User: Fold this.
Amino acid sequence: MHIRPASLDDIPTIQALYAEAIAFQRGGGHPSWRALDLGVVEQDIAARSQHAVVLDGQVAGIFSFCPPSAMDREIWDGMAPESARYIHRIIVGRAWKGRQLFAPMLAWCEAEALRLGLGRLRLDTWAESAALIRHYAHFGFRWVGERTTSANDALPPPYRGLRLAIMEKPVGAGRLGRPTEVAMP
Assistant:
């Protein structure tokens, strides 16, 4: 397995991963992305923030590792948004579920944050998704609170009006990317 920057050639695979994830989320009655915002993905690719997890020669998952976006600045306002890196749009293809791919993704993100001299990683997920909140907490992310994104035109349409749980993880202490005991709010 390895992680590499995504390219424009990966867009059909990224679109397929989103479609599969959205169908799975909706089919299971889980909160889901409203739609893929291809413009955000293309911006992430151009900024070298979109990454592909390659397993057995195929893209098994994707994630974005980036400086704070307009949405991050909004939901982390007053909490030094520039002091962290953000992990967004994490998808593991259904064919690779159960292979524990989030751990190496997270270890890679932690190593990159340390290389950049940053001491924390942040992410958000749907506030009503207790399962995802527990999942991220299992990997050392601490629940910080809930925020609802605005209808601000600076945010892409699919990211407006979302009720989110915001979570943070210090890096540099403990084993990288390894699960920890879960303490929920």
